[in-house]
Amino acid sequence: MARRALAISTATSAAVAALVMLLVLAPIGAVGLRAGWPDGLGAADWAALRFTVFQAVLSAVFSAVLAIPVARALARRQFRGRGALVLLMGAPFILPVIVAVMGLLAVFGQSGILNTGLVALGLPPVQIYGLHGVVLAHVFFNLPLATRLLLQGWEAIPQERFRLAASLGMGPQEVLRWLEWPMLKERLPAVLLVVFLICLSSFAVALTLGGGPRATTLELAVYQAFHLEFDLGRAALLALVQLALVLSVGLAALRLGTLAGFGAGRGAMRQRWDVGALWLKAQDAFVLGLATCFIALPLAMVALRGFTALADLPASVWRAAGASLIIALCSTVLCIAAALALAAARGRWAEMVGLLGLAVSPLVLGTGLFLLINPYFSPQALALPITMVVNALMALPFALRIVGPEYARAEADFGRLADALGLKGLARLRRMILPQIRRALGFAAGLAAALSMGDLGVIALFADAETATLPLQVYRLMGAYRMEAAAGAALLLVGLSFGLFALFDWGGRRGADT
Amino acid sequence: MLTLEHVTYTQAGFALSAHWALEPEARVAIVGPSGAGKSTLLALIGGFLAPSAGRILWQGKDITDAAPSARPLANLFQEGNLFPHLTVFENAALGVNTRLKLSAAETARVQGALERVGLAGFEARKPAQLSGGQASRAALARALCQDKPLLLLDEPFAALGPALRREMLGLVGEIATEHKRAVLMVSHEPRDAVQFAQAVSVVAEGVAHAPQETNALFANPPQALRDYLGA
How far apart are the first and last CA of chain A? Predict the structure, then answer.
């Protein structure tokens, strides 16, 4: 281990780590204390727990299994627009949930494309609300993620093995059996677990497409206990159950080492000799076409329906957009500063602190913060600052995963030189680290900004009728059946989210000379 | 007999051409400066690259567009000759049948090949549990199981020490003689070429020259070979 005397102040890192821990652990403590040991879980609570697990299992299985043919086709085909398609697969990660829900409603909803077609054919329409709607939305978000994770798996199969397979005359079946299946066997559990974990904390999807006694997740139950019944004890108890659930699954995921690599997976396609058959080409074209439609069609519908409404959006939408922008920018600054400070510590403990955000859902954190603040201040008055902080905490694990390795690389490459020159403190950060990790920093900031922009979680707990972020405003417009205005606001939201991401990412690439 | 008929390959400033034939059971070494196209020549013959022009013939039949496995040749690559998740036996058996459904006779053949290369008793090992020399032997057993008349060696023993490398080349030579195989071998080591090959093809300045008898060639090297040898 190299001498660390000249590196960025460890005191700063420790202080940031302590603050992050406090912000996560104090609300958890508050939740635990408030939950106490009341009469235990009621029938409705058990139903919520069962539904949470059940829908997450279904979502994980469908996402992962359907991702296999998509990733396989992407891995073995070279075509115009392949890069764009891989990029599209990354889009749902920063797509605001409420926008996706609107798009899915436009395709699969009551008067959506699918039902219009079915009715025209004289078939009964399908219902999107309930379990299958929730699972559909989760697959929409996680099929692309699973595809990208599996595509990385395919890219990790050494090129030499495909060459050897071709030399031995293996057909697609044997390539599947001897090359692809061993990789899938190794990677699928991790993919399943990650998607399962993500879907356990589903709030916005359940809020919009679920609900009722038969389709309520724990997160939604927390919100309902809060908002409809104002039963803080029950909200705290449910939050505690949610925390235990996510924590246990999260620890298992951490064991499998699966929480890495959310970003990459877009390398160039490599030469293959075993996939020339016409029926294979047709099969891949069909699979990729279907996947593209599934992801792009809802987005296109939002754009289509929202476009006409953009001209006369209500003033409340613009106000909400302004609030969201401020929240997103501030939480990005907080998130990146914290990520830098933790990356500077370059220790396992700092990494664990950074991951804390994954263990708690926004609703659990929100419940805890509400309990802490309520006796002293009006939580409603602090709705926006709290959203800012929670959003920063939620994006921190991703930001740290992106920035951390680059920071370590910069130190490994140039640390000795910097030490020899006596470069320390802020000067080291400005002259050596920041220019070196600029690209990663821009990407991480883009993610943090977009995630914060689109978040519909803790704000729903705190906001009164006067305050709203843009996602919440879209939800309210939908609830008021002002679908035209909702579509316009959704388009504005997705434009701002992607715009912020693109802006930061571009800023990071521009002038990066590494 | 393998025939290269005005085969050329060009890509982004790189060019290679070859126009010659390989006699049955011949043993030819390919030498030349790095980057000249020795491995490219082997990839063209192996079917991993398509020539820009010209034809490749086997016994007079055009195989220019044939899939790698449809060609009358077995490959030993520089690396990646074994699947790490399969045992030595399974790796060798892939040369017989990629479904690994072997008849009793085929099982005996794989067993025989492993014995021939000195790996009897190592059947159940995974490649990670083998030394470099043993891994080379396993790959050779697999190539032997493939039962193809031509063997292409793209420096598969480059990572071995000189003594072990010569031992492996000796083994390849013995096996090639026993089974009447022709061998085309890329080499960085002129001494290996002299020891192993009856003829040498010099690859330099965009041309893979027709093989010439080894001793005669080294006794009176052309300019390209002199430049390469630095003599």
Answer: 25
